Amino acid sequence: MSLGHALLRQCGKPSGWLGRLNLWSMNRRHSKVTEWGLKHVSIQSCDTILDVGCGGGMTIARLAAVATEGKIYGVDYSEESVAASRRANQPLVDAGRVEILHASVSQLPFPDEMFDLVTAVETHYYWPDLTADLREALRVLKPGGTLVIIAEAYKGGKYDRLLQRLEELQRQGIMKYAHLTIGEHSELLSKAGYCDVRVFEEYDKGWLCVTGRKGS
User: Fold this and answer.
1) pLDDT band for position 168 (cuts 50, 70, 90)
2) 3-213 architecture in CATH?
3) Where are the domains of the chain?
């Protein structure tokens, strides 16, 4: 595998020293799009929230700063990401306000109807089975709860040319990557069982936010 391919695969599952460097970079690069995306959902102080694909832990810290009387959970299938996210949020972990687990979106280690909000920041493109995994996220949402997907990569967006390489690697079977249009995102959430699906785009910045709610 070439160095370029190795770097790209680190985005999906960080590991080793290169993964740690990538996680640090992700925390910096994704900060602004995360802040923008979270403005499209309501977060209450007592909410119980799950961040799927928690990466370096930046989103968890941001959520904990708002849900000050709730609890934030994070999951990631990269052990390096779990360790980095715990380090970044150690005081909150020690206080019992944050819990971070090594797990896959395909089999979330939580009971039905546990969360008010599920977040997925720059991660859903790498999920093993998008429709099934979105249904798994729906399972753990409370009735009336919300899923929010925040991304800088989507078909028809500002960075299409840069993302063509990832599409090629997907076709070659080198890495898992879903490159979807705005309409395909909306259709996907509806197919998975979400209602009140909404899409927000900031084309000039290459940002996309998709929300869906679990019916009562």
Assistant:
1) low
2) 3-Layer(aba) Sandwich (3.40)
3) 3-213
